[in-house]
């Protein structure tokens, strides 16, 4: 295990031991506030009941994000109502899905959809994932073999995406997406799944796995708070910019109406 010392803090604060974990797909669930606080800062409503599971609702009430650790197998459920582009859809992600990977999908729910056609495979190929096809099924596997993304096309025409990660002890998580799940959301998740950067976990929350690499880091509470606040501030700024753009958008000018039988001026 490697040791890193973080520099640059003022006096009076005690450092806390955390760990950088790689690959992120095997880092464990993490703090759900990484997801919920970003959504809240983006204008989502917190519909959670006291001491109950997390439940966040989009401003237009068409999408809900829930996390329930009190049931088996537990985990994340993201549900979208039917709209003009997609039918009703659901994404289910296991309890040990790292919050950074979940946030790839939930953060994308707060942003305007890109005009470019989504490509789920592109982020994986950029990180040298191995790909193979078997008839109508297509699979990409991470270079270390711990994570995968699969596309299944059934004979009845139903398309299904499935992803997950697992170590040699069989510990990990899976996620699946119903056929109508918007592809730009699946692509956003695959980008975080393939992200090679490590993620941080506090001491005592690092999974026991022979297939992860860890670096010990000394972090002060103010530094952790600053990182968290930067993410929230970015969400608020983006939300403010979108709302401002909508409010300043020029309205169509009403056309002049000439009453029936009225005189028209010739030029």
From TrEMBL:
Residues 241-267 are annotated as: Disordered. Residues 255-267 have a biased composition (Low complexity). Pfam families: SPDY. Residues 57-114, 141-199 form the DUF317 domain. It comes from the Bacteria. InterPro entries: DUF317_SPDY. This is DUF317 domain-containing protein.
């Amino acid at each position: 295990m490697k040791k890193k010392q973080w520099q640059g803090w003022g006096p009076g604060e005690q450092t806390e031991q955390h760990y950088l974990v790689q690959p992120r797909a095997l880092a464990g669930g993490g703090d759900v506030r990484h997801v919920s606080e970003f959504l809240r800062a983006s204008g989502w409503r917190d519909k959670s009941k006291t001491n109950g599971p997390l439940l966040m609702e989009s401003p237009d009430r068409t999408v809900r994000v829930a996390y329930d650790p009190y049931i088996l197998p537990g985990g994340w459920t993201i549900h979208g109502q039917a709209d003009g582009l997609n039918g009703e859809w659901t994404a289910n992600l296991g309890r040990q899905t790292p919050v950074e990977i979940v946030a790839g999908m939930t953060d994308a729910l707060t942003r305007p959809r890109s005009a470019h056609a989504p490509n789920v495979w592109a982020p994986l190929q950029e990180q040298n994932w191995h790909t193979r096809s078997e008839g109508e099924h297509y699979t990409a596997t991470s270079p270390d073999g711990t994570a995968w993304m699969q596309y299944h096309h059934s004979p009845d025409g139903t398309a299904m995406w499935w992803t997950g990660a697992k170590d040699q002890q069989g510990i990990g998580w899976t996620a699946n997406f119903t056929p109508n799940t918007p592809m730009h959301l699946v692509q956003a998740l695959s980008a975080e799944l393939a992200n090679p950067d490590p993620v941080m976990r506090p001491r005592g929350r690092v999974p026991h796995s022979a297939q992860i690499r860890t670096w010990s880091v000394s972090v002060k509470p103010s530094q952790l708070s600053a990182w968290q606040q930067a993410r929230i501030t970015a969400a608020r700024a983006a939300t403010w910019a979108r709302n401002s753009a909508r409010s300043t958008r020029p309205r169509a000018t009403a056309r002049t109406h000439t009453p029936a039988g009225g005189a028209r001026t010739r030029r």
